[in-house]
Structures are given as structure tokens and as C-alpha cells.
């Protein structure tokens, strides 16, 4: 029943084959979507090479650099989408960043610079991408982003990212209200802790995973592909009545009090 044949999906945030965005891209491809992929450019081209190798089996028809702090690159990314596909149906936002200062020590000690950079990349970028995606979603569409329970509850060493994710979840609601009349749905997936490149920056990530495995109702954490399945569902017509929501894919951990 889940068929995305003929749908165009732009996926951001793939860093390597452990990325949640990679799990999402695989499942979108499996459902028949045409894929476009962005990567974070760097001077030596290392990220481009790594991401290109990872996504090669999915044969993306778009592969472009996109640093969300560079407005010209943002504009160019969606210009390529328009020129290649003519329309966009699905936008996957898997972008987040906080430096070491933002993920350790006293929260009150976080600098203005760290706070601003993290919120720009992790939170503002969703609304900014939606601005460019909106004209291309002429037949309606689905925007999906990634969040974490640290956006609603205090998680050790998550610090600044918790504030960024809280802002992201509220951004989802405001965008859903704005874009709903155009039949564009906006939702977030709150995934359980997974060993990814981004997660490795969070101190004690393995302890967090073991804790979830011990406490969550399913007595395990989740996989990238399980998150990918939910993202694919939210991107499909099967989820046509769902918008503005945060869907927990965390083996049930969020319901537990202790």
C-alpha cells in the first residue's frame, strides 16, 4: 500500500552509512521515490566523496552541496530541484549541530556564538528550507524533521541541543499551521538514541543507549531503518491526515516515568 512512485524527495543530513538520514533515504527509495541528496561541502571535498559513495546504490538524480548557513547555496539547491524535477513532494530535514561547548559544562556558560550557531543550523534551517520548498510543493507535500526527547526533558550532556530541538518542535507546529492550506504537511520524528556520527558528540551516548535498552517497553532501542519506515509513512498518502505532530520512534521509552 505504501507507494511513493513518481514522488520527488530531497534528503538532507546524510554523513555516512550510520546516519538516520541514510536509513530514511533507503526506505524512501524502496518505496519508489526519486531521490535528491544534499551534502555539507568542505574545502577538501571529503564529505562529498563519502556521501556520494554511500548513496550511489540509490542512484539519486540530484546531488548538490548545501550549507544551510550559506543562503546562496540554499537558493541554488532548490533551483536545481526546480530545474530537474519541476516540483518537490517530500523534504527530509536531518540537520543539527552544537559544538563541544554547547554539549558539556554549565548551561549558563554557553556563549552567545555557540547558541546562535546551533539554533541557526538546527532550528532556523527548517523554516528557511520550507520557505524555498513551499513554491515547489504545488501539489501538496510532506516535510519531515528529526528531534529527540531531550527537547522536552533534561538529558545529561544534551544541553544546547535540547533548546534547539524544543525550538524545532515548535517550528514544526507553526509551519504546519502556515502550510496546511496548501496541503503541505509538517511533522517530526523523535527517535530513540542511535549510534551515529552526530550522537557520538554527546557524552555518555552508550550509557544512554543501554539505559533505553533496560527501561523501554520493547527492551531495546531502535534502528535507522525503523525511523526510515516512519518517515516514509509520514511522506505518503497513508498519513494524509497527520500534520504538526511529533511521532516517537523510541521503543516506547518516552512513556516511562522511571
Helices and strands, with pairings:
Blueprint lengths: L7 E4 L8 H11 L3 E6 L6 H10 L6 E4 L5 H15 L4 E4 L18 H22 L7 E7 L11 H21 L4 E8 L13 H11 L8 H12 L10 E4 L9
Helix pairs in contact: 1-7, 4-5
Protein name: Enoyl-[acyl-carrier-protein] reductase [NADH]
Pathway: Lipid metabolism; fatty acid biosynthesis
Family: Belongs to the short-chain dehydrogenases/reductases (SDR) family. FabI subfamily.
In short:
This protein has one domain (about 10-250): Rossmann fold (3-Layer(aba) Sandwich). The chain contains seven helices and seven strands. It has helices at about 20-30, 45-55, 70-85, 110-135, 160-180, 205-215, 225-235; strands at about 10, 35-40, 60-65, 90-95, 140-145, 185-190, 245-250.
CATH level 1 class label: Alpha Beta
SS element count, helices:
7
The oligomeric state is single chain
Strand ordering within the main sheet: 3-2-1-4-5-6-7
**Gap between N and C termini:** 38 Å
Topology-level CATH name: Rossmann fold
CATH superfamily membership, which one? NAD(P)-binding Rossmann-like Domain
How would a crystallographer describe the biggest sheet? 7 strands, parallel
Name the average pLDDT.
95
The best one-word shape is globular
Specify the structural class: alpha/beta
Secondary structure: helix percent: 25-40%
The number of distinct β-strands equals 7
Tell me the radius of gyration. 17 Å
CATH architecture: 3-Layer(aba) Sandwich
Strand content is 5-15%
Count the domains: 1
Pathway: Lipid metabolism; fatty acid biosynthesis
Active site: 148, 158
Protein name: Enoyl-[acyl-carrier-protein] reductase [NADH]
Binding site for NAD(+): 13, 19-20, 95, 165, 194-198
